[in-house]
Specification:
Two copies of one chain form a homodimer.
Chain A lengths: L1 E5 L4 H13 L1 E2 L2 E2 L2 E6 L12 E5 L7 H6 L5 E4 L5 H6 L1 H20 L7 E7 L22 H18 L4 E7 L1 E2 L12 H11 L4 E3 L6 E5 L1 H13 L10 E3 L3 E4 H17 L2 E3 L3 H8 L8 H5 L8 H12 L7
Helix pairs in contact in A: 1-7, 4-5, 6-8, 8-11
């Protein structure tokens, strides 16, 4: 089985490749080769199969065709210009997120008799406020950003190409990934991970919102699990509706903090410094808080059931299993 | 005021231009020039302002830019490859319906300080079965054809470009237009018009479905009215949701026939020959039957309130006001 990961240098892409390297197989079949593609060189990962790193821009005509020329059995398309950048740079967002995705779909389409599994990471940004208390899969597409628009278009194309038998697509809308490893970044959502990650490292974290803010989370390990399940599941029950909101956990910031206290004690919690930021508060107020992922759950997708579990996964996967405090 | 009609050779495009020629003005402003564009030469129409006919393919790069170079104040984009052809010819459907639409939107976008009203004819094909009893504007986008997919993508682009202030878009999803003038065609929906139009001409019409089949209709005159209202309405109340299902009339075939009897008598009705066609019955069974167009109605869009009225409009507009029988 040959696998292509587009967006292989990102956090989720890297964790996906590490997991595939560890498993050596996917859906009961041995992996014989993997191509890790991105605009920057993906990290070297040891695996029982050859991993080819490729660096290029999928929005350059011809590049997508080159990537699928050896007919990978499974294509993971994780590459995207993120929300803030797609909003700031109109051309770049549409070029990568819309044209790049379409080039990939078309590169697959034109190869006679080739119908790979095509896993597309969509986003909850396909939905825009005002929201119901829990957003179901039948909530209408109302993106309020160019990024959300581009992802919604990707979902529509994925469904049409799948319906026509040109590929076998599954679109997954990921929750906010928490605890995100690495350094703090400037994303407005960064504090959801920061208030856990920094205290576990003995460092101070800034909390810019109040503790009653609720958000929708899943661990990086769950994100990889969603991708693997999307790559191997029976797609017949999807019918014409190829994109799914993934399961997750709706917790308030206050509940996150209490989970941190249970896992790492009062000393960790004491490192969280409240510094209300009206700009971040306003952005976060427009975000979805909870989804009804019944459809994905009934199709076998699974996420964490407590925030304690999300923290423990971070400790296991990023901190060698030890709470440092 | 300068107007551009793309798709000016089609039935609705022609009627729109005839109406604009008759009115001489739009939204209280005198029309100074109109460009009628299509892939075939639009019919010559007399008007109190110059009408330039242009023939080209909007999916050829550069053509869209040439069309909007003189900055029309209102752009009506009615051009499309129809459902059956877009399904049969994948490349052509995506090239005209998606690329062509995007070229137009982008041609407008790149002109600094130019924000025209952009009226886009979408379609109820953005929705796919299973349907609720009446389909509201918040029903999720579930196209089951490539045509519906392309129209749904057009709606998403229109909303994003409008949100960013690049143009001032309104998308309208038209009901089935009835009574469609002209000769019988092979569209599966053709009989809805045929069972009225042919008997009024003293000709036999075939009815391939049972009389309890319900469908969603508006007259060609209403279709033109929707376009004019979309071109002149205040778009502020639309917010980020730029596309609307138009009002119409849900009637059964039996109700259509009784309306024909009231308008044109038993002799007309006797010209309808029942010839059940299982293929047409199956196609029609998958179509939406009724919409809840409350949002469009509250914004001032109006359709007929009885099928008698729809028949009388046909008699007035196509038969010189006289019922020929």
């Amino acid at each position: 089985m040959r696998i292509l990961v587009i967006g292989g240098a990102g956090m989720v892409g890297r964790k996906l490749i590490e997991r595939l390297a560890r498993d050596g197989r996917l859906g009961g079949q041995a992996i014989t080769a993997l191509t890790a593609h991105d605009v920057v060189a993906p990290a070297r990962i040891e695996a029982p199969f050859p991993i080819e790193a490729r660096v290029s821009d999928i929005s350059v005509p011809g590049e997508a065709a080159a990537l699928v020329a050896d007919r990978p059995d499974v294509i993971f398309h994780l590459a995207a210009i993120v929300s803030g950048e797609a909003e700031a740079d109109f051309d770049k967002g549409y070029r990568i997120n819309l044209d790049g995705t379409r080039y990939l779909l078309d590169a697959v389409r034109v190869i006679e008799g080739y119908v790979p599994r095509f896993v597309f990471t969509s986003s909850v940004a396909v939905f825009g406020a005002p929201f119901p208390e829990a957003i179901g899969d039948e909530f209408f597409l109302t993106p309020l950003t160019s990024y959300g628009t581009q992802k919604a278009i990707g979902e529509l194309l994925l469904a049409d190409y799948s319906r026509r038998g040109l590929l076998d697509g599954v679109g997954i809308r990921l929750p906010t990934i928490c605890v995100r490893p690495g350094k703090p970044n400037k994303a407005a959502s960064g504090f959801f991970s920061g208030i856990i990650r920094e205290p576990l490292n003995g460092q101070e974290a800034i909390l810019p919102v109040s503790e009653d803010v609720m958000h929708w989370h899943a661990s990086p390990r769950s994100a990889v699990g969603f991708l693997l399940h999307a790559a191997t599941m029976d797609t017949a029950p999807l019918g014409a509706r190829r994109s799914l909101s993934m399961p997750g956990l709706a917790v308030t910031v206050g509940e996150q903090i209490e989970a941190l206290r249970r896992v790492a004690g009062d000393k960790a919690v004491a490192l969280i410094r409240r510094e209300p930021d009206p700009v971040v508060q306003t952005i976060v107020a427009g975000w979805p808080r909870r989804f009804d992922a019944a459809r994905a759950e009934s199709l076998g997708f699974k996420a964490e059931s407590s925030f304690d579990e999300i923290i423990r996964i971070h400790v296991e996967d990023e901190l060698g299993g030890k709470v440092p405090l």
